[in-house]
Amino acid sequence: MKTGFCVFRAGALPSGQSRRPAAGLLVLPLAVLALSSCFGVSLDISVKNDGSGRMNLEYRFSRQLESLGRLDGNGRWNIIPTGEADFKRSLARSADLDLVSFSAKEEDGDIVNRAEIEFKTSAALVSFLDAGGRRAAAGEEGAKKKLRLVLHEGTGNADPELLSLLKENSGNREVSVSLSAPGEASLALVNLAGEKIEAPPGARLTARGKKVSFAMNTGDLLGFPGGIILEILF
Questions:
Q1: Does 14 fall in a domain?
Q2: From the CB of residue 130, how many other CB atoms can be counted at a distance below 10 Å?
Q3: What is the pLDDT of residues 136-188, one digit of tens each?
Q4: Is residue 58 included in any domain, yes or no?
């Protein structure tokens, strides 16, 4: 059950982030996740052998987050992409990205945006997910292609009471990522030190197959101490 307020973590946006329109979209939801439990995002990616494919993106956020961009006199900046025009502006930066469809609605007090995006290369996908290159990267490992996504940088010495509030106010919002490939894919979880870790309690993980996936409640993710990075080989 959702409560009537959001919980924001103390401090500014993560290093290097300013209250400006997003160069990419995943980095922005994840930046907001570092601050608030009132956000959820789902990425469902399908790739072909040549690196092209489609992504279905859904993200939901509390209406209260709409005011975040107006903090500190920055009302002219949208810190969260809130409509089709925001997607089109991001996609216009690359000729290898196309918006196939977009829809928006209000659901249980959340704004829910859904978009289907076509990408021609893995590089184009990453440029959309995180133009800054801090939280998304594509490369190769042996004969496999590799996608790396930083979902959470860890809680450090966060106040236990704050973490409890993050969990309480996350409701049913979650962060989920899935990737479908023509052949066998694998998904590993690592921490910020690059060490492989087990799936945290409450997380849902499919580590091998033609479709691999990870999902976790937003509050649980924010409360996880060691950081969570997805490394997907396909």
A1: no
A2: 22
A3: 999 999 999 999 999 888 766 656 666 666 666 667 788 999 999 999 999 99
A4: yes
User: Taking a C-beta distance cutoff of 8 angstroms, is the pair 231, 187 a contact?
Assistant: yes
Domain membership flag for residue 8: no
Distances (CA, A) of 84 to 70, 81, 114, 164, 222: 20, 8, 9, 34, 28
| Tally of domains within the chain | 1
56: in domain: yes
Instruction: Determine the structural domain holding residue 219 and report its residue range.
Output: 27-233
Helices and strands counted in the chain (H then E): 5, 11
**CA 168 → CA 6, 7, 173, distances in Å?**
10, 9, 11
Neighbour-count burial for 204-231, b at 16+ CB within 10 Å, e otherwise: ebeeeeeebbbbbbbbbbbbbebbbbbb
pTM: 0.78
